[in-house]
Amino acid sequence: MLENKNSSSTSLSDIGEFKLIEHLTQEVKIHHKNTVKGVGDDCAVIDKNKLQTLVTTDLLVEGVHFDLSYMPLKHLGYKAVMVNLSDVYAMNGTARQITVSIAVSNRFTLEALEELYAGIHLACKNYQVDLVGGDTTSSIKGMLISITAIGEADKKDVVYRSGAKPQDLLIVTGDLGAAYLGLQVLEREKQVFQVNPHSQPILDDYNYLVERQLKPEVRKDVVELLKELEVKPTSMIDISDGLSSEILHLCKQSKVGCNLYEDKIPLDQQVISTCEEFNMDSTTVALSGGEDYELLFTISLEDYNKVKGNPNFTVIGHMTEEAEGRSLITRANQKIELIAQGWNAIS
Amino acid sequence: MLENKNSSSTSLSDIGEFKLIEHLTQEVKIHHKNTVKGVGDDCAVIDKNKLQTLVTTDLLVEGVHFDLSYMPLKHLGYKAVMVNLSDVYAMNGTARQITVSIAVSNRFTLEALEELYAGIHLACKNYQVDLVGGDTTSSIKGMLISITAIGEADKKDVVYRSGAKPQDLLIVTGDLGAAYLGLQVLEREKQVFQVNPHSQPILDDYNYLVERQLKPEVRKDVVELLKELEVKPTSMIDISDGLSSEILHLCKQSKVGCNLYEDKIPLDQQVISTCEEFNMDSTTVALSGGEDYELLFTISLEDYNKVKGNPNFTVIGHMTEEAEGRSLITRANQKIELIAQGWNAIS
After folding, report:
1. Chain A nearest-CA residue for B138
2. Are the beta carbons of A44 and B133 separated by less than 8 Å?
């Protein structure tokens, strides 16, 4: 059967990932009463009495999500685990197990896969996660990694994307934009190398950026810190696609608007200086760069004193009534509509 | 970094899938006491008080595991779910949830993915399983489907591969070899079609074989039946790689030997007649064909009366002391060593 047998056909590139998932899963019917949450958040939630099981999965494709010409395989293995664990922490849960499936073409050797798994094992060790299963198979072309992470949380602790209320404070951990700039630096070095294979990359001025791209760490510590501080966010998401995209997810699913203040967005000094060098706007990079794997969450105003002054957190705005819209308040105090561009739009 | 930077390198094709997984996961350390079973059975097992969570995952790659020139996308979606659910039933559990990740190149249209998901949704409906998450992304080439299935079972009901004892009876459900022959029939029609695109496939004489290949059903019913009969198998596995390979898994993990009787292996009449037509040995097809998705299990002798005469079950042999080896007793009453060949070896 040819897959385009239908006379009316729609190109996938016209749709976009979120719309596509929404479209393909709109018919999903839930059969089990212990399936508390299916498609549509960072993780699925499965009820096991008081404890809930969190499940999330991600697929990384060579040439789409990673480039082995500058991504060492050990780092790739580490990062592939991080991407998944981040979704569990974004539900305010603890990651417990992962399964790892890989498809590889015959250009990869056993030693190459050992490198990849060294990174996976290191991630499991650092985050106290068990590798419990998987599948290994051939691919026609390139490498593909599919990881499913399983976590758990007390029912009362699970935080969804949908709980934000007007007036809630919008908070982000760490700083933003560095991983995206790290990728730009690596891309530039790759091009230099292609012109002159004897050149040695000079990455000293960009070490933070490159590390954020090649060896991201995720915010298990923040989930633990929030428990210590006795703060339960009203909504939470991790930043994988860029700050603006994630804020819009929270707004949409919580049915609220927001005011995001440009001058509050936390940026590392290397991000600022490299943006100047690359002639890029640092706000655009932070809003649309992605791969930061920081946590973005909302808290009710009454919890403000518990997080105030904590160096892990930056209040970057607040939620509003839905009718007020989703706005970026610029440094020049202009109110403009917040839109999700994704990194494709940056140039 | 080049992936073959090491001076000593091992080709993946020299290793084989089982050895590869064993090799790559030998370092796995288990951090959580609720991880009851990690790599090495049909599913991982996670303890949740009395209930245990079962997790399994499979990766299907176009050109390796399926050929879209004769596999309709709806059937592919259905089968991809079956492959995973089968592993949950093989633990004597009930499948509850799945996640589905797909990578597709831009040759696929939205309508093509809708077909695929129609099959996935149908499988979920027929087996009462919830689709709870996933990921959709582009691939450089072809289609790839990664599914993780989550099931559950009472702790006391979970059946591993490792519990078989000498004297236990070896039992298989349904009949074997049909799915493999279905593939041969479809391959032949494809070749005819390539020579003469106006030819119409004549599949009437092979309808059972083709159905077993294109729309396999898995044995949820058997798990329910065993409960009704109050039989708990001592070991169990599903037949995905071929009967001999699965028997050897049970023997290895249970540290026992076996006698398998050639004349007891259940074969459908279409398998027998098509083997004659294709000049193939039906025993070899049943032993090495694979993709039957039947259940293979052992029971202690005292449970024999409970299953005796049940048309769902065929006793095909018994387990022995490990030192006695793993043997096939041929129709000519010769004892030969049982080896796993996999379908690559059939010709």
Report:
1. A64
2. yes
**Are the beta carbons of B138 and A12 separated by less than 8 Å?**
yes
| CB burial readout B223-235, b (16+ within 10 A) else e | bebbeebebbbbb
Cα distance between residue B136 and residue A64, in whole Å = 12
* Residues of B whose CB is below 8 A from A61: 103, 137-140
Find the domain containing A255 and state its range: 169-345
Give this prediction's pTM.
0.87
Please say if the pLDDT value at position A8 is more than 80: no
Kindly report the CATH number assigned to the domain that includes residue A109: 3.30.1330.10
Q: Minimal Cα distance from A2: which residue of B?
A: B69
User: Which of A57, A92, A91, A45 is CA-nearest to residue B130?
Assistant: A45
HEC profile for A67-135?
CCCCCCHHHHHHHHHHHHHHHHHCCCCEEEEEEEEEEECCCCEHHHHHHHHHHHHHHHHHHCCEEEEEE
Which one of B59, B70, B109 has the shortest CB-CB distance to A9? B109
3-state helix, strand, coil in chain A (%, to 5): 40, 25, 35
Contacts of B280 (CB under 8 A, 6+ apart): B181, B184, B346
Length of chain B: 347
d(CA A248, CA A173): 17
The model's pLDDT over B58-87, given as tens digits with 9 standing for 90+, comes to: 999 999 999 998 899 999 999 999 999 999
For residue B265, give how far its alpha carbon lies from the nearest alpha carbon of chain A (Å).
29
| Burial class of residue B144 in the structure, from the number of CB atoms within 10 Å of its CB (0-12 exposed, 13-18 middle, 19+ buried) | buried
**Across the interface, do A73 and B3 touch by the CB < 8 Å criterion?**
yes
> Does residue A48 carry a pLDDT above 80?
no
Contact list in A for residue B49 (CB cut-off 8 A) is 48-49
CATH of the domain at A302: 3.90.650.10
Q: Which residues of B32-42 are buried (b: 16+ CB within 10 A; e: fewer)?
A: bebbbbbbbbb
> Does residue A149 sit in the same domain as residue A178?
no
pLDDT > 90: what percent of chain A? 66
